[in-house]
Write a structure and sequence with these properties.
alpha+beta; four-stranded antiparallel sheet; 24 helices; elongated; 11% strand; five-stranded antiparallel sheet; single chain
């Protein structure tokens, strides 16, 4: 705030100027008692020169409270004088004295205002001085704190300082006193003085290092000599390689003559280096099993070797789909049709990537007793970490004449289905595959079985993979897993092919309404069987579920959808035996199941005797494999069913049926029925040639 200048004699309204003018004494009034006193503004003689800072000096002497009181009294007096002047003007009286008094009071108020501004300015100046003092003290405090912090850091550095001897790993004191000579260890001096002990240990360390440095120089010289020898031998080996190749080329005629394809095996082994680990384990174990146990097994590597080399170098064939990029843009706008088309194309590309196979494949050829050869083509899916197989069957001339090559039994779809229990190849063996398929909108792995091959569990095991049902982390192939399953798997495949060929031969004969007979037929069945096979046709699961017995078995899971169903009709003198036959995919490990009922005219009979016939065929089937191979089990069961049907008719079970004729007794048995359950003589004793009850 600018300092006000001191008024001169020319300024109007100053207290001194008012004092110079002659003023008439106003009439005495009670109102003048409350007006501010003339001493509020000091009055000096006009001849006296006032100092410039008189009011500033006066501010220091006066108090703010007294000035506030004077201001309030002056304002109150002015109000009263203004009211008097107003009354005098209305009454026509003289108001000059009141005007002069009012003007004087205004002058006093202006002075009080100047004094208040001066007092405020001084207060601000004092406050600024105090703030500057506080700022100076605060700066000094910060300087002191910085010095304290710097001293603390220096103290910490001193505490953390480590000398070079602390970085050296010295031997323990016990070893030092045990190994060091006494002129260095000085036990009398060092045991009581830690400083001397440290000096002695450092001296011993120096002596040891000098010794080790000499040994190092000797070893380096020896190493140089050995390196020269190795280099000489390496040059000799490098020159030996071309010579060996020339020798192998010269021995090719001998290899062909003695059937020893060493070059082919060498190329196969070189190619095997680029196989994925599961296929490499499969190739290694299958080759070892071929050399040690099974010469009828052939192992080959197929595929493009150059592509496999590029895949191994880039290391991108194992995992290519890691994240889902189907997120919306940050601005929240709707995607356009062009954007959706791009996403659909990207999703389709992801599906193709999931189904990508490794460029190399393993082919196993299993020869089955000069009857057929099974070709198993194994492929590896890197994304799923799963091995799939595509089987095919080739028949020789003898077998192809007796069976149908295009039969469903020998098709690639069902050839190896359920080779082991509950292994139909429809499910992904690796549980993590389901999550990867879900990312691209696929709910089932079975959709791609026809395109890729079947991921049987036995395929994973002979490839060294062993997945648990709830295991989601990555599985590492192990050679021990393949070794423990290789022999059993090859034997199971060979047994399955032979059983399918035998079963197909029997089905082909049954389609011609002929039940094939084995060489031991007369030792197992009577020479004369009167009933004949009049019909044999495939059936469906819906047709079989019409029978209550089979419906309950389907509900219990004993009969599955992938089983094969047939219906057979045996007839003798217009009486028919209807048999529903269920063949498992695991035949003959799981025997055929028969459900029978007798039809006489329009009447269908199913009683305890027909159930006894079922039990004779279904329960006591092991007797049929004692004299013959289990591969002919279906034909032998049908022969026994014929035999039991004859016994059923010859024992007179239809005598009570209206319109049924009686049958002559052609079989030899002692009693028609026996026991509480009135059992029929269904068991045949070939030695005595008679039928007995069980």
């Amino acid at each position: 705030m600018k300092r006000r200048r001191t008024r001169t004699s020319s300024d109007a309204g100053s207290p001194s100027q008012e004092a110079k003018k002659p003023v008439k004494s106003p009439p005495t009034s009670s109102k003048s008692n409350n007006s501010p006193s003339v001493k509020d503004g000091p009055s000096k003689s006009p001849d006296v020169q006032l100092p410039a800072n008189l009011e500033e000096m006066e501010v220091d002497k006066r108090s703010a409270e007294s000035d506030v009181g004077s201001f309030e009294r002056g304002t109150e007096e002015i109000r009263k004088l203004v009211a008097e002047i107003q009354g005098q003007k209305l009454s026509g009286g003289d108001s000059n004295e009141s005007r002069i008094r009012c003007t004087l009071l205004f002058t006093i108020l202006k002075k009080l205002n100047r004094l208040a501004h001066m007092r405020c300015k001084k207060s601000r100046e004092r406050t600024q001085e105090a703030k500057q003092k506080v700022d100076g003290l605060h700066l000094q405090l910060q300087n002191l704190l910085y010095e304290v912090m710097h001293l603390k850091k220096e103290i910490t550095k001193c505490f953390e300082f480590k000398s070079k001897d602390e970085e050296i790993e010295l031997v323990s004191e016990d070893e030092f006193f045990r190994d060091a000579p006494k002129e260095i260890s000085k036990p009398d001096l060092t045991r009581g003085d830690t400083h001397q002990l440290m000096l002695a240990r450092l001296e011993w360390e120096l002596e040891q290092r000098k010794t080790l440095a000499l040994q190092k120089e000797q070893f380096l010289k020896k190493k140089g000599t050995l390196v020269k020898e190795i280099h000489t031998k390496k040059e000799f080996l490098d020159s030996l390689q071309p010579r060996l190749e020339n020798i192998l080329k010269a021995t090719q005629p001998v290899q062909e003559y003695m059937n020893m394809p060493l070059d082919v095996q060498h190329m196969q082994h070189e190619t095997a280096r680029y196989l994925p680990l599961p296929l490499y384990i499969l190739y290694m174990q299958a080759s070892a099993y071929n050399e040690a146990c099974d010469p009828n097994l052939e192992v080959n590597i197929l595929g493009d070797l150059d592509v496999a080399k590029a895949a191994m170098e880039s290391k991108t064939a194992a995992r290519e789909v890691e994240s889902d990029s189907d997120q919306e843009t940050s601005d929240g706008h709707k995607r356009s049709k062009h954007r959706r088309k791009k996403e659909e194309a990207r999703l389709e590309e992801k599906k193709k990537t999931l189904l990508k196979r490794h460029p190399l494949q393993i082919q196993l050829q299993v020869h089955c007793k000069d009857k057929a050869t099974v070709h198993l083509l194994f492929s590896f899916l890197p994304i799923f970490n799963t091995v799939v197989v595509s089987p095919s069957l080739s028949l020789n001339e003898i077998a192809s004449g007796s069976v149908l090559a295009n039969s469903t039994l020998l098709s690639a779809y069902s050839l190896l289905t359920c080779l082991f229990p509950d292994d139909d190849g429809e499910k992904a063996p690796n549980p993590s595959s389901l999550y990867q398929l879900a990312k691209v909108g696929i709910s089932s792995f079975s959709e791609f079985v026809a395109l890729l091959g079947r991921p049987y569990m036995w395929v994973q095991r002979i490839s060294g993979l062993d997945f648990l049902s709830e295991e989601l982390h990555e599985i590492v192939p192990k050679s021990s897993v393949s070794l423990s399953h290789m022999e059993a798997t090859i034997k199971a495949i060979r047994t399955r092919i032979l059983s399918r060929l035998a079963l197909q031969h029997q089905l082909s004969c049954l389609e011609g309404l002929t039940i094939p007979q084995n060489k031991n037929y007369l030792q197992m069945f009577p020479s004369k069987i009167s009933s004949t096979l009049t019909a044999w046709r495939p059936a469906t699961l819906e047709e079989l579920t019409e029978q209550p017995t089979l419906r309950s078995l389907v509900g219990d899971g004993l009969i599955k959808e992938n089983d094969m169903f047939y219906q057979a009709v045996f007839e003798r003198s217009k009486v028919q035996l209807l048999a529903a036959v269920v063949l498992s995919q695991e035949h003959p490990t799981t025997p055929p199941f028969f459900s029978v009922q007798v039809c006489c005219g329009k009447k269908v009979i199913r009683d305890s005797y027909t159930e006894a016939i079922e039990a004779e065929v279904n329960v006591f089937y092991p007797e049929l494999t004692e004299e013959d191979s289990s591969l002919n089990l279906l034909a032998n069961q049908l022969h026994r069913l014929q035999m039991c049907f004859d016994i059923y008719l010859e024992c007179g079970n239809l005598n009570d049926v209206e319109g049924a004729e009686s049958f002559d007794r052609e079989k030899f048995f002692l009693r028609f029925k026996k026991g509480r359950d009135r059992g029929l003589p269904l068991k045949y004793d070939s030695r005595q040639g008679l039928f007995t009850q069980r």
